[in-house]
Amino acid sequence: MTTMARQPSVASSPSTDPLHLIDVDHVRFFVGNAKQAAYFYAHVFGFQIEQYADLTTGSRDAAHYLLTQGNIRIILTTPLTVDHAAAMETALYGDGVKDVAFTVFDAGAAWERALRNGAMSAAEPRTVTDEHGSITTASIRTFGRCIHTFVSRTGGYELTKVKQGGAFAPRFAKSPSIGVNEYNKANPCGLKYVDHLVGNVQLGKMNHWVRFYEEIMEFKLFKHFDDKDISTEYSALMSKVMSSGSGLIKIPINEPAEGKKKSQIEEYLDWHQGTPGVQHLALRTDDELHSIAELRRRGVEFLNIPDAYYDKVWERVNTMLTGHGHQPVKEDHARIRDLGILVDADDEGYLLQLFTRPLQDRPTLFFEIICRRGSQSFGKGNFKALFESLELEQARRGNL
């Protein structure tokens, strides 16, 4: 990945690979109240409430709100009937990620290829067509409650047109002029697109889901971290990072490791009915300092990084950078410390990152805000400081 946010193109030649992922089409959250959640994410994280589908537009079973920022598209879905899938899931798990959907050239062909590879179907191919164009979707199951939906679009529903403000899907209407959208245009948070998403799975299941992504989605193993890399005095975990063939999306898969007390993965599973799921989304920015400052101003709660972290970080990071022929960290060091931002480096460059506290009352979902200056990694040098901070939060919640 480059230091600038990529904007994947759908204008390339059609691929002969059915599982070639063109873009992250959208990430769907099941939530208890989509209208209220939309205003939370708009006010606090700067998303545009772009479009909606509800009873007034002909959507009878669920209400949906499309939130956009940069190349990020989040769909918030809330049930309107007791038999909608989101009704039971929000009761069991609270708000959280249900679907990470990918734009492909042919959703039916992608689904068929995944099933031949061994996937379990979540939804058969379905095409909806109107005077504007058509959308074909088909879904497979992945860890826990989550699914991956393949999406192919034609006509007015092509993703390039959606990015320009076109209708997301049939029965979606443009949001009326509202103050928060105008405010966010004038005061951007600078979030560009989904950098990666992290799945938490049960003890002993990490390699099972690694094989799933290798064999079914045809991903590759990108990086591996064991309990020696990710541990503190009290807790540990192991992680393997899977990458799509194009490098479009990376999915670290975490499982707990033996420790004196509960790891963050065990806490997640305890409050998620023992069911695997998406622990966090990492959202890319080109300017970490601006994004974190604006998000803090809006009320986003981030993990507290101890001052002692900054006593050694610059020597570690800049030594790594200069040793590999890179320039030292260019951002203002004092400002990084004031904003509580984490810094790490590898042989390709450096990154800046920070993690929010849970986004709702259950400790089962948070965001990471990340800026890459060449680094392809995930902040290995920050793991100890990060996990000590997470343990303090777990202790505050009585879950360590």
Describe the structure.
This protein is of the alpha+beta class and 400 residues long. It folds into 2 domains: 23-186, 2,3-Dihydroxybiphenyl 1,2-Dioxygenase, domain 1, CATH 3.10.180; 191-397, 2,3-Dihydroxybiphenyl 1,2-Dioxygenase, domain 1 (Roll). The protein has 11 helices and 17 strands. It has helices at residues 34-45, 85-93, 107-116, 159-163, 179-186, 206-215, 264-270, 288-298, 309-323, 333-339, 383-397, and strands at 23-30, 48-53, 62-69, 72-79, 96-103, 121-130, 133-141, 147-155, 173-174, 191-200, 220-225, 236-243, 250-257, 277-285, 342-346, 349-355, 366-373. Strands 6-7-8-5-1-4-3-2-9 form a 9-stranded mixed sheet. It starts with 22 loop residues before the first strand and ends with a helix.
Task: List its traits.
400 residues; alpha+beta; 2,3-Dihydroxybiphenyl 1,2-Dioxygenase, domain 1; 2 domains; nine-stranded mixed sheet; eight-stranded mixed sheet; 11 helices; 17 strands; globular; disordered N terminus
Biggest sheet features? 9 strands, mixed
CATH homologous superfamily heading of the largest domain: 2,3-Dihydroxybiphenyl 1,2-Dioxygenase, domain 1
Using the CA coordinates, give the radius of gyration: 21 Å
The helix/strand order is: EHEEEHEHEEEHEHEHEEEHEHHHEEEH
Per the principal axes of the C-alpha atoms, what is the gross shape? globular
CATH architecture of the largest domain: Roll
Helix amount: 25-40%
Which runs of at least 5 residues are low in confidence (pLDDT < 50)? Answer: 1-14
What is the strand content? 25-35%
The number of domains is 2
Number of helices: 11
Cα separation of the termini: 36 Å
Work out the number of β strands.
17
CATH class of the largest domain: Alpha Beta
Q: Strands across the major sheet, in which order?
A: 6-7-8-5-1-4-3-2-9
CATH topology of the largest domain: 2,3-Dihydroxybiphenyl 1,2-Dioxygenase, domain 1
Judged by helices, strands and strand pairing, the structural class is alpha+beta
Mean pLDDT: 90
